[in-house]
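Recall the central idea of this unit: under ordinary conditions, the amino acid sequence of a chain determines the structure it adopts. In this exercise we apply that idea directly, starting from the sequence alone.
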Amino acid sequence: MRIRVTVLLAAVVATGLTGPRVDAQEAFFDEGNQRYQEGDFRGALDRYVQILDQGLEGGELYYNVGNAYFKLGELGPAILYYERARRLMPADEDLAANLELARSLTTDAVTPLPEFWLFGIVGWWVNLLPRPALLWFAALAYLAAMTGLIVTILRPTTPVAALGKRVAVVGAATTFLLGINLVVRELSFGAAEKAVVMSAEATVQSAPSEDVALQIFTVHEGTKVRIDRRSDDWAEIVLEDGKVGWTRADHLESI
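Accordingly, the structure predicted from this sequence is:
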């Protein structure tokens, strides 16, 4: 199970850290990687957590945190951080393999319900590219659209004007589609709150109550759920196989 040794530049830039604080976070990341490679998984995790405590987030960082937790045998936190990494690196094959392995070791054998084909297409489109690549392509498409428009305006009677018009139209359409993708991804339109069970075992009730007569099933550490609503200290959860019930919110950690 490999870790990622790439730098935290994207995460650092996103938080506005500069100068010595950037160097400190990079040093923690490098030291965490070194400790992981030496088999000191707890020490590696401590260094990664120090970075998280600064408010940084990044797919590579979450991935390494998940690996450290997995090596320590803590499936709940491992799956939680793999899922957080997947939000930022949806197409990463190593991450997908590690997440699948971790989920295969959980107690609950949950068979997901078939997904409606349209939702599958939308999900594929939204997660088609990692966020950095999406931003670059959107910027390039916008630049192409503006270049084509300028050429069309400045050289309206030349043969290149027709090419400029086509470039402007294609660039504008691509910018629009990628922009919609970014908006949907960043604002999470239509995305329900997802969480991971962090307790070794959590009872699920038919209503938000501790009454043992209302218990309908149990879930265990590492199981992924959807949170439909909350009521005081309770959350109504839906499993991937469609089972529904209420459990105490402190058993869960949001992705």
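The two ends are 22 Å apart (CA to CA).
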